[in-house]
From TrEMBL:
Residues 398-433, 665-692 form a coiled coil. The lineage of its organism: Eukaryota, Metazoa, Ecdysozoa, Nematoda, Chromadorea. Keywords: Bromodomain, Coiled coil, Metal-binding, Nucleus, Transcription, Transcription regulation, Zinc, Zinc-finger. This is DDT domain-containing protein. It comes from Caenorhabditis tropicalis. It comes from the Eukaryota. One of its GO terms (cellular component) is nuclear chromosome. Residues 1224-1256 have a biased composition (Basic and acidic residues). Residues 459-526 form the DDT domain.
Length: 1388
């Protein structure tokens, strides 16, 4: 039945005196009868007001009908509540909970049930994305059962964590008994309850109807009718493991004491009194505190005071009798009798009355002093003569007694206050952080197993391997691991094999070094560049003012030598050291050159970058430079041996030096700083979320407290957010579908707790906690992953200074014991342990204590060297044991404990991987425990490898018809190959010496006794000299030709050949081979060609190569006779023959034309001088005379050709020559000298080419144009209109040069920065050259400026990729200039 104003409602009984014809009003809802309509109307109004509440759920502010519906729903839910879950819950309430507040009781039960499951309970089991109904058969724990100790401030029940339980379940719904019905070792992650059963509001409903708070009790217990269900149960019937320990909170009484707790007042009297008050004052609120006195009670009290005063004064009133009325008031009756009789009656009655009053007063006084008597006994105050029932104590005695008790209580309070202060100080002193070893409550720590390192590996080497492995793991995003190795992961075994193994074909050392040197090339291109010219004026000023490396007192000379060496190497190989090709054969020489040139001076271009971005980095601080100075023996070995011949420790030194060198560059340092900043930001967000969650907890508690204290019910206007939250919470509690994303957004934003009911606040807070926990776990996982990305995670150290390191790349948590050199700490104070049980050691535990003496101390003394250097955490149990053993008062262990708790889930995943590797027997394989020492394997013969390489090289050249040793050196090719294959000595086949730079570099008499490497270098030199120069690329070929018009080698190529014969190691020779192999035009080889006639491929012996155009033809297509070998070697295709004949005819016509011009010039000189000299017959006969149609004979005149685009110097010389008169000729018959444009072009290019054979700035002259003789005699004339256009174009170019997009096009391209630019671009152009040509009036027309600008854009498009920055800048410059330039040129 619903409650009316939270009191039980009893319908009215049937009215009396009802006859058959009486008109009644029937209320169907309450089944009541009323005699009149007013009573009926009053009842209906009451039923529709919100003064009712549900008796089962205690929901208030309901109408009668809503309360009835709520009770029906609650009864249905109670009937559907499973028996297998009801009995454990009631058992927990009866046996373990100690709560005096109902909500705390619900929280305790829910906390115990959360993620834990009871025996015989039906749950859902998830397996392979399927949800199956199952039943819990048994459960057990994976952790040792220990006695659970609670602290006073614990707010939730204490029991084993949910992940410590394992369950055996039975799958329901299977017809026959099979093995698939049962699942063992099931964790709580795969089990869950239905939301309709395990929700908090369901538990609250069950406990409201099954539990109550006894009137004289301080905790909720199970009602009597449910006791039988749980009386015979034990904890083992419910769940395994240790019994839960629940906190205790007594009943907090507010207001007056309930009538039920008043002694002497029965429950029936209390109910009657309560009903009467409810009927009389249904609408008035109940008063709090002591009830007011009635008039009768006040009158009685006043009369007592009067009699007490009269008795003290000795006055006796004339009283016949005392009558105490039924209400308790005292009335006096005085009679009209005689004085004597009246006196007798008064004496008798007054005497008896006085005795009764006196005893009553004594008893009342003793009852009032009963509290003080108890306090006095407790405080030790003497109460002799005070606690009695014979006499009435005087007020003075009572006052003195009370004062003495109060003084003792005050003294007790002061003592208690001092005691509390003392305890607070002791607690603060106890909890104060201190040295770990002086804590008196240290517990034994778990004994970790030793890391199974191979016998041939030392602890220091393992540390270096971890360092190299961590470097590759930290920078794998920017290292080219995928491009070189095909995988982004580097294993520990790869690093160990790379350092230990000396076999280049089995060791990944070359691949890992290629990765390091590739990123080094990219970084040095950006941050270093090439060496600077120390003799430059600006460089000298910078060196002297900034005290740069070249003038350093200790290292200045070395820096200069290194810079000169770097320049020399660049002039030998045509590229810097950082760009040299790297493979397993050239690696040694490249490393030697890197160490030999590290620390070179880069000059003013990188000074500011080194100063600010690299921390004022100096060349002599380069780790590679320091290694060369510290270990010159390693560098000397690299000169004659290979890196694979070194000791593993020496290879380790090389790798570490390269890594340290990379870490000095700003790119890697910036990458680390960015990752560290991201990690710090993530930690700040995590801390901010925790602070916000604590604030939400306070808001929720405040809202709950307001609802508990505020008894006024009034309607509040709900906002849309509140309505949404309430609807989502209701749907969640009822198990219906709702928008979870919408609810999660509100939960993580701000929940309006002040507008929710008590149940809604609790449900919303639980959902918010769950969502915050999920987000914190995600952020913790991100933090862990980012921390692993930055470096290995140093969790901290324990009391024995052991470091705990997370190495995710080997899936282990390592424990490193410090060495003697690392830990230099003396003993200070010996450790003192209060509990002797903590001093016991066994197989699983070990104790670390300080003895106070360095000789015997296990932590600070030398005895710590007896422990293993490297250990690891092998199981989850050991991890939990470590957490329990750490002392939260120690300086080191508190930090370690915080990190372990923060990354708990991630660390458990790492340990789980460790356990999996050990189960799969891959743990020792990854550590290479049982593998023999890879350093013992070496099966490479460098001489054989090099000879095979040279033989293959020569074979490709010969088969491709690109060169022939027989023709160049006049020796038999078969004999040469046989000598090279046998012993590599081909010097004996040479007949003449060989020269480079007019120096004899191969002296046959002196090379008979040389090293094997020198003999192989001579063999390769012969191969190089045998190649036709047309198959070699620049910069090995000079852009100019010799006097015969043939190709000639560049000076760089000559220096390269000289250096080739100075090789001292196989790796150096291999580097020469590799660099030269890339300079050969292999696409012109016969082996790579197709028949130009039929477009089909064929074998080399079926093709013939044209000596002019290098085109291939089938022998059949070329119609070549196989018997004529000379035709095959000197074959020329039909097209080349036709072109050759054409050139010969043109040359013949040019000779005839030159002869005619000479004759004409001689004739003009003779006529002007009026001389009569005879002209040579041959010249006269060559003069061509033609006849017109009318028969008149005329002379054929040939005009001189002068290119209009010559530079100013050439143009002036032409003008002088062409404007000279015949009178200025020195000799009469001297022919006119005409400037040969082709010869001038070759001379210009040859002058502008540097001594290294590397192309610098060069300009190909524009096309030729014909000018008449009289134009050559007249000066340049520019009309005013054209002059205005040229001025406008000049102004446009100035504006263009000021644009940001014009910086790549301002100056000619520098050959040092772009060595191959002039190999691709034959006609370069830039804005500065165009501006100079305008100022020097080289342009005849404005259209020529447009042609040069289009040439500039075309060159940029040809050389640069479409996605490059310079190409995009050219498009911006095009859009700025082209339209305006076309408008200027096209204007009239």
């Amino acid at each position: 039945m619903p409650l009316l104003n939270k009191q039980s409602f009893e319908p009215r009984s049937l009215p009396n005196g009802i006859v058959q014809d009486t008109q009644l009003y029937y209320c169907k809802a309450t089944k009541e009868l009323f005699l009149n309509h007013e009573e009926y109307f009053t009842r209906m109004m009451m039923l529709n007001t919100t003064v009712w509440s549900c008796s089962l759920t205690r929901k208030s502010n309901l109408t009668y009908f809503e309360a009835i519906k709520s009770e029906q729903e609650a009864e249905t839910e109670l009937l559907n509540f499973p028996e297998s879950l009801e009995r454990p819950i009631l058992f927990i309430v009866q046996k373990f909970t100690n709560r005096g507040r109902f909500e705390e009781l619900v929280n305790d039960v829910y906390h115990i049930m959360k993620d834990r499951y009871f025996t015989n309970e039906e749950v859902y089991y998830t397996e392979r994305n399927r949800k199956l109904l199952a039943q819990i058969i048994t459960s057990y724990t994976v952790e040792e059962q220990q006695e659970i100790k609670t602290e006073p401030d614990v707010k939730e029940p204490v029991l084993l964590p949910a992940d410590a339980y394992r369950y055996t379940i039975k799958i329901l719904g299977i017809d026959s008994m099979t093995e698939n019905m049962f699942r063992e070792n099931v964790t709580h992650d795969n089990l869950f309850r239905s939301k309709n059963i395990g929700a908090r509001h369901k538990i609250r409903l069950l406990l409201k109807n099954c539990c109550y708070l006894p009137p004289d009790g301080d905790r909720y217990t199970v009602r009597d009718r449910f006791i039988e269900k749980v009386s015979q149960m034990w904890w083992s019937d419910v769940m395994s493991g240790t019994e839960p320990v629940c906190p205790q909170t007594p009943v907090q009484q507010r207001g007056r004491v309930p009538n039920l707790l008043i002694p002497g007042l029965s429950r029936t009297q209390n109910r009657k009194k309560k009903n009467e008050n409810d009927d009389n004052n249904a609408a008035t609120p109940r008063r709090r505190g002591r009830p007011p006195q009635t008039p009768e009670q006040r009158a009685l009290k006043e009369k007592r005071r009067q009699f007490q005063r009269r008795s003290e004064a000795g006055i006796e009133p004339e009283i016949d009798e005392f009558i105490i009325s039924q209400s308790g008031a005292l009335t006096l009756t005085v009679s009209q009798l005689s004085a004597s009789s009246a006196k007798k009656k008064v004496r008798k009655s007054s005497a008896s009355l006085k005795n009764g009053k006196k005893k009553a007063k004594i008893q009342e006084q003793q009852e009032d002093l009963d509290f003080y008597f108890n306090e006095a006994r407790r405080l030790g105050v003497d109460i002799s003569g005070l606690e009695q029932d014979e006499r009435l104590l005087s007020p003075k005695i009572v006052a003195n007694f009370k004062r003495k008790v109060r003084e003792e209580k005050e003294a007790e309070k002061e003592l208690m206050k001092e005691e509390r202060k003392r305890k607070i100080k002791e607690k603060a002193a106890y909890n104060k952080k201190r040295e770990d070893l002086i804590c008196n409550d240290l517990k034994p720590m778990p004994k970790f197993p030793a890391l199974e390192l191979p016998s041939w590996m030392t602890n220091e080497e393992f540390e270096d391997y971890l360092f190299i492995l961590q470097f590759f793991s930290s920078f794998k995003d920017i290292l080219p691991l995928k491009e070189i190795r095909g995988s982004e992961s580097v294993l520990l075994s790869d690093v160990i094999l790379a350092i230990r193994c000396g076999d280049p074909q089995s060791s990944p050392f070359a691949d890992l070094m290629r990765v390091l040197l590739s990123i080094r090339t990219d970084i040095t291109d950006e941050e270093d560049g090439d060496e600077a010219d120390i003799n430059n004026r600006e460089e000298m000023y910078l060196i002297n003012t900034q005290n740069c490396d070249p003038i350093n007192l200790a290292h200045g000379d070395s820096i200069k030598e290194i810079s000169d060496l770097h320049q020399k190497i660049r002039k030998i190989y045509g590229k810097s050291v950082r760009h040299l090709p790297v493979d397993w054969m050239t690696l040694t020489e490249v490393l030697r050159l890197i160490f030999a040139t590290s620390g070179y001076y880069t000059g003013i271009s990188t000074h500011r970058h080194r100063l600010y971005a690299r921390g004022n980095f100096r060349g002599y601080e380069d780790p590679a430079y320091e290694l060369r100075m510290r270990r010159p023996d390693i560098i000397s070995k690299l000169r004659t041996q290979t890196v694979f011949d070194l000791e593993p420790s020496e290879r380790m030194e090389i790798v570490k030096a390269i890594i340290y060198q990379l870490l000095t560059y700003s790119k890697l340092r910036g990458y680390l700083e960015k990752s560290q900043n991201d990690l710090n930001e993530l930690k700040k967000e995590q801390k901010k979320l925790k602070t916000w969650d604590a604030g939400q907890e306070g808001e929720a508690n405040a809202a709950r407290l307001v609802l508990e204290l505020d008894t006024l019910d009034f309607e509040k206007k709900e906002s849309p957010v509140v309505k949404i939250v309430k609807s989502h919470i209701k749907a969640h509690n009822e198990g219906r579908r709702y928008d979870k994303n919408d609810l999660d957004t509100i939960l993580l934003d701000s929940v309006p707790y002040s507008s929710l009911t008590l149940d809604e606040i609790i449900a919303a807070r639980e959902l918010q906690k769950a969502e915050v926990k999920i987000k914190l776990d995600i952020m913790s996982s991100k933090t862990f992953a980012m921390h692993c990305k930055v470096s290995d995670i140093r969790l901290g150290s324990d009391r024995a200074y052991r470091r705990y390191i997370v190495m995710e790349n080997i899936s282990a948590i390592l424990v490193e014991n410090p060495t003697t050199t690392e830990l230099c700490i003396n003993c200070d104070e010996p450790s003192r342990i209060d509990d002797e049980n903590n001093l016991r050691e066994d197989e699983k535990n070990e104790v670390f204590l300080c003895s106070g003496q360095l000789a015997t101390c296990l932590v600070h003394g030398l005895q710590r060297n007896n422990r293993y250097r490297w250990c690891y955490i092998e199981s989850r149990d050991q991890f939990q044991q470590l957490l329990n053993s750490l002392n939260p008062r120690g300086n080191r262990e508190i930090e370690l404990l915080e990190y372990l708790n923060e990354y708990r889930l991630n660390l458990l995943n790492v340990i789980e991987k460790t356990e999996q590797l050990k189960r799969e027997k891959c743990w020792e394989e990854n550590l290479m425990t049982n593998i023999p020492d890879p350093a013992d394997t070496y099966n490479i013969d460098w001489d054989t490898e090099m000879r095979d390489l040279l033989l293959d090289f020569e074979e490709k050249l010969d088969q491709g018809l690109m060169g022939s040793i027989e023709k160049v050196f006049k020796i038999n090719r078969s004999s040469w190959r046989e000598s090279l294959r046998d012993n590599g000595d081909v010097v004996k086949l040479l007949e003449d010496n060989n020269e480079v730079f007019d120096q004899n570099i191969i002296d046959i008499q002196s090379v008979s006794e040389v090293s094997t490497v020198k003999k192989l270098a001579i063999a390769f030199f012969m191969i190089v000299r045998s190649i036709n120069l047309k198959f070699i690329k620049p910069p090995y070929i000079s852009p100019t030709k010799d006097e015969r018009g043939n190709l000639k080698p560049s000076e760089l190529f000559n220096r390269w050949q000289s250096s080739l014969l100075q090789c001292e190691s196989h790796s150096a020779l291999s580097l020469f081979i590799t660099t030269f192999e890339g300079a050969i035009k292999w696409d012109k080889s016969r082996l790579q060609g197709k028949c130009k006639s039929c477009r089909r491929k064929a074998f080399a012996n079926e093709l013939v190569l044209c000596t002019e155009c290098d085109s291939c033809y089938h022998l059949k297509c070329a119609k070549v006779d196989l018997k004529l070998d000379q035709v095959i070697s000197d074959y020329m295709c039909i097209a080349c023959k036709a072109h050759k004949r054409k050139l010969e005819n043109e040359a013949r016509r040019k000779n005839v034309s030159k002869t005619e011009d000479s004759l004409l010039a001689s004739m003009s000189i003779d006529e002007h001088d009026s001389a009569t000299e005879v002209i040579d017959e041959a010249s006269t006969s060559s003069l061509s005379v033609t006849k017109t149609a009318s028969g008149r004979s005329v002379k054929k005149i040939h005009y001189l050709e002068v290119h209009e685009g010559l530079n100013l110097k050439a143009r002036k010389s032409n003008e002088v020559l062409m404007s000279s008169t015949p009178f200025e000729r020195a000799h009469r018959n001297e022919p006119v000298k005409v400037l040969d444009h082709d010869t001038n072009r070759d001379s210009i290019q040859e002058d502008e080419h540097d001594s290294d054979g590397e192309n610098t700035r060069k300009r190909k002259l524009p096309s030729k144009r014909s000018l008449t003789a009289k134009n050559n005699d007249s000066p340049r004339v520019i009309i005013p209109k054209e002059k205005e256009k040229m001025s406008a174009i000049e102004q446009l170019l100035k504006e263009a040069m000021r644009q940001e997009c014009s910086w790549p096009f301002l100056q000619p391209v520098d050959v040092k920065e772009v060595p191959d630019y002039y190999d691709v671009i034959k006609r370069p152009m830039d804005l500065r050259t165009m501006m100079n040509k305008i100022k020097q009036r080289v342009y005849n027309k404005p259209a020529e400026v447009g042609s040069d600008f289009r040439l500039l854009l075309s060159n940029c498009e040809t050389y640069n990729e479409t996605e490059s920055e310079i190409y995009q800048l050219s498009k911006q410059l095009d859009s700025f200039v082209t339209t305006r330039l076309d408008n200027i040129i096209g204007s009239r």
